[in-house]
Amino acid sequence: MTSYIWLIPFFPMVGFLINASIGVKFKRSWIHIVASAAVGLAFLCTLLIFVDLLKLEPNARHIENVLFDWIIAGKFKTEIGFLIDPLSVIMALVVTGVSFMIHIYSGGYMHGDPGWRRFFIYLNLFVFSMTLLILGNNFLLMFVGWEGVGLCSYLLIGFWFEKDSAANAGKKAFVVNRIGDFGFILGIFLIAATLNSKGIWSLNFSVVFSHAGLFTTATATAVTLLLFVGATGKSAQIPLYVWLPDAMEGPTPVSALIHAATMVTAGVYMIARCNVLFSLAPITLDVVAVIGALTAFFAATMALVNNDFKRILAYSTVSQLGYMFMGVGVGAFGAGIFHLMTHAFFKGLLFLTAGSVMHAMAGDLDIRNMGGLKKFMPATFWCFMMATLAISGIPGFSGFFSKDEILWQSFHRGHLFVWALGTIAAGLTAFYMFRLTFVAFFGKPRMSEERKHHLHESPKVMTYPMMVLAVAAVVGGYVGVPAILGGSNRFEKFFEPIIGGGGHEAVAEVAHVAVHASHSIEFLMMGISVAVGLIGIAVAYLFYIKKPEIPVKLASGMKGLYTLLYNKYFVDEFYNGVFVEGTKKFATFLWQKVDVGIIDATVNGVAGFVEWSGLMIRKLQTGYVQTYAFSILAGGVVVFIYFFWESLF
Amino acid sequence: MIPSQAFFVVSAILFVIGVIGAITRRNAIIVFMSIEMMLNAVSLTLVTASSTLHSIDGVMFVFFVMTVAAAEAAVGLAIFLLMYRRKNTLKVDEFNLLKG
Amino acid sequence: MGILIAKWVVFIIVSLLAIISSVLMITRKSALHSALFMILTFVCSAVLYLLLGCQFLAMLQIIVYAGAVMMLIIFVIMMLDLKKETMFKTRITRTKIVGVIVSLVFMLLLMLMMGLNGIKGKAGTLASIGDAKTIGSLLFTHYLLPFEVASILLLAAMVGAVMLSKKKTMEGDME
């Protein structure tokens, strides 16, 4: 089965092509079946490949499948080829698995939408691009997938493009991602340039990483910083996170699939994939860790006061992505990917429940209009509860293992600042998630009577995928139970071969810091993070169940802080004022001064001169025969004078 | 023999008189006749050359010039008829449709 | 010697007559008068051809030019009622003045060039260039192709003249 890696992207591509071409003639249900089946088959293939991979020796778990040559330019050559190793197989499992669930779910959620076929075409195209990104065995193929998912993200955010806000959100996502992608491709160029100058004409991961020794620290730092710029764009980190909250304008399954579970994690995946290069650049790793921690913290604070169900989740996603970057930033690549996986389960689930709530609430997402939903939609509530407990880091749920692993790794590798911010953010996460739970699902219903009348549980096609993900969100963490809790952290072990691949010593040093911290400290850390989470939950309980007047008082008491948080630190306004308006002003200057004043003036001047000289010359064309006769005569005289002159000398 | 230069001078004078007629007169028929005059002057030159050089080529040229002049006269006069029908005049400065 | 003097006398008289009549031709108001002076000029040219020893062309000149072509012109003048065309004066414009001056310069140049240099070229061997036999035999041998082309030209001119002067009939006017 391992020689059939190409089947994984192949099936979504076929699904995309079928629906895009002959899908016109299909019944609505067929379109759904084709799209879901395509992803389902891809998932099945991934599972089979995963099983095959597990049978291999840990060090042999690196299989490349080259299909054909793609670009040959002089000595440079790159091919369409796929790579399976522990990293990509985990990603592929998560992506195809979650995608499969969400494809099924979408059949219920998008029910009756006029864009039904378009939606599934985009979704399949997305899964195809995402699997290309993950499975590509070279940087260029990864970049193709990277751009493909960006395109699909744009198309799906602006899916309801008749709505101005959706169209604008799509544009914003596209433009912001463009900045990141620019950095990414510059990084690829720099890699290619560095290697080419040393005689290596390939961008294959295995070739690049086995020649990592050719990078000086400075070059490696530049390359990794550029790659990280790409990651901040795609994975919504400071300073390029602004597009993700707005991306919630898209259909909720899209938010779940692209903007929570899969695409936004591409940056983390890319850094993990390039861990060899990143390990060569300690400065970049520090930058990554600090940016991740700051993002985790600030995004969490922004989620505290928001009242939009999906936007809270969006900020939460940004914050959780920050955790993943913390993980990879401190050198714990396995922990980062571990959190990526659990996050894909619980955050995908959270969004699906949000979609379910939205379905029942006829599209209203303001949590102030909800309340008491527990009674009306029990299945949704319990799924939501599982995911909330997981994200809050309650022991026993998946989020606990992965988040704790990251915090512990950052602590014992000496990144105390990162650890502190991460721990505070964990408390904030627990608080805002339970605030959301208490406000939306508990208490008295606050919606209008008419809407209350219509409240209903979602159809089975939606609840079943949610339940599957709920199970995954709970048990997903048990593949990585740390040794201290009696587990063997199989995830970490499974992951080991890809870390520092290529056998570069410096890499190995960073990645496998042999710290034998005492178990008591590790228990203490675990206790702290659990305690912080519980405190967050307790405060939320106090604020929104026991004494609902406290938050109101707090909001009026700390008006400045509240306004700052409510307006998301005015970052959007700042970007708008500085970059958008600045660009507009500059463009206006170019338009009115340079274009109109210089370029147009030159072109018009040339045209004007031609017109003027034409006007002058046309006067010669009098239309009178005798004038023409005279011209002939004058010409004859000139010719004669010439010959006369010749004959004289 | 009379030197050929004498004939050349005469033909030059006749030619230039034809030119002056062609560019000053407004009556199309007189312009046309002036042009015939220019052709005639050229014919005279050719015959002179032929005679001086004892070669038949110039005469042959004149022969064909006459043919062309005859054809030109036929077509040209037909055109004058059309012009007259259209504008009821033959003043050449009334016809300036080709003005730029 | 006497013949030469006689030739000179004839030459001078005929040349002067030709010049005077051509000047008169371009200055007459009436087109008909111009045409008559034109005939006179052409006849003078025919005499000049005779002086050059080219009898055949002289005959041709009188028959084709002074006869046929001028006949045609006079015919057209008579057909068109050109009475009012004789009423307007020659308008003198700047272009015309300049044109006349340039023409005179042109004449001076011509006379200088041709008068000073005379004629140069490869001399032929023919004793006579004027008799019909020589011309005829050459015309049907060496100059056969141009001759045939000239006949096509004449045919085309004939058809063209008929087509042009025919009154246009509208499609619907057909009776």
Supply database-style keywords.
heterotrimer; A: 649 residues; mainly alpha; two-stranded antiparallel ribbon; 2 strands; 3% strand; globular; C: 175 residues; Four Helix Bundle (Hemerythrin (Met), subunit A); 6 helices; 0% strand
Explain this structure to me?
The complex is a heterotrimer of chains A (649), B (100) and C (175). Chain A is mainly alpha-helical. Helix content of chain A is 73%, strand content 3%. In chain A, strand 1 and strand 2 form a beta hairpin. The longest helix of chain A has 48 residues, at 571-618. Chain A is globular and about 120 Å long. Residues 501-511 of chain A have low confidence and may be disordered. Chain B has a single domain (4-94), classed as Helix Hairpins (Orthogonal Bundle). With 175 residues, chain C is mainly α. Helices cover 72% and strands 0% of the residues of chain C. Chain C is built from 6 helices and no strands. Chain C has helices spanning 2-27, 31-51, 55-79, 94-117, 132-139, 144-165. The radius of gyration of chain C is 22 Å and the shape is globular. The relative contact order of chain C is 0.06. Classes of the chains: A mainly alpha (649), B mainly alpha (100), C mainly alpha (175). At the B-C interface, helix 1, helix 2 and helix 3 of B face helix 1, helix 2, helix 3, helix 4 and helix 5 of C.
